Amino acid sequence: MADEKHTGPLWRSLLRPVYRAVAGAPGVRHLVAREAARLGARDWTAHLVARFLEGDAGAAYGVTRRDRERLLEAIQETLANVQSGTPFAVHVLLAEALLSVPADAQGDAVECGVWKGASACTLSRVCGMTGRRLKVCDSFEGLPDDGGKLHTGLHTQVYGYYEAGMFAGARAEVEANLRQYGELGACDFIEGYFNESLAQLDGAVVFGFVDVDLESSMQECLRALWPRMVEGAYLYSDDAGDLAVVKVFFDDAWWREQLACDAPGFVGSGCGLPLSPMYSAIGYTRKLTAFRADDWKRVPFLHYPD
Fold first, then answer.
1. Distance between CA 221 and CA 235 in Å, rounded?
2. How confident is the model at residue 38 (pLDDT cuts 50, 70, 90)?
3. FRET label pair with 14: which of 27, 143, 278, 279, CA 20 to 30 Å apart?
4. Contact present, 43 and 89 (Cβ < 8 Å)
């Protein structure tokens, strides 16, 4: 075994010219390109599911592996019957994140921008499992008018425009979906446009999911949610690909003026969290007002004065 360990790199280096010659052949190049495209189009949902099932998300609430299996089955049923702007992998990610909120953290979960209620179905089920409330916030009239602004995805090279009323889901339809596929009894509805309706929020927020598409709407949500978010709380957004929205999370002047703190930044800016080899629309920020070294990791390639 020792000889094999030391000779391996040598024979690989000897074979490298042969590999290059073979791989350079037109037919092989086509094969490699085709396989690369096939793999690039394949997401990593299986890995997320395995991590979710085999991990301990929700253990502090008494949630078992079988409970997580049933939740995944419920998510599949929801997505088979309710139109959704978020794929299965994102639902799993959000469920895992909400189940991972410390059990002693006091507060509710909030979703802003619910469309037909698919993600609310998933989050409401998790709230039912953890004894929390889900604040369902939407005008139920679709997007407000944004003046015909151009929206671009720098990474995806997609562009387009929004119209007033796009992505509307009537409240009665959302409630019906929650009743059948989620847990309506765990939900409180806050109806109206965010600049007015979110003033009705009360209590602490331990988790947020915001999918609002517009920079102005994101700002309204942050004004209302951020002061109520507990230390360490995650705020997820499905607008990671729209840099006009993402820029809000890096605008120190706006944060200092509106929320009296520095901008927190945004993980997944432009191309989203790595839920696939190519792109996802989901990312997050986190409320951390003070650095605590005990909560972070040290690595061998950085310097520590002590």
1. 11
2. low
3. 27
4. yes
Q: Which domains does the chain have, with CATH numbers?
A: 1-41 (no CATH), 44-295 (3.40.50.150)
Q: Is 102 exposed, middle or buried (0-12, 13-18, 19+ CB in 10 A)?
A: exposed
Which residue in this structure is represented by tokens 């997944």?
268
Could you tell me the two tokens for 260?
A: 């009296």
Which tokens sit at 266? 């945004």
* Cross-strand pairs, 235: 208, 285
Residue type, 273: L
Q: Does pLDDT of 37 surpass 80?
A: no
Q: In sequence order, which residues have a C-beta less than 8 Å from that of residue 45 and are 6 or more positions away?
A: 88, 89, 92, 275
Beta bridge partners of 285: 235
Cα 169 to its chain centre, rounded Å, is 21
Pairing status of strand 151-153 against strand 134-138: unpaired
Q: Is the pLDDT of residue 142 over 90?
A: no
Neighbours of 72 (CB within 10 A): 17
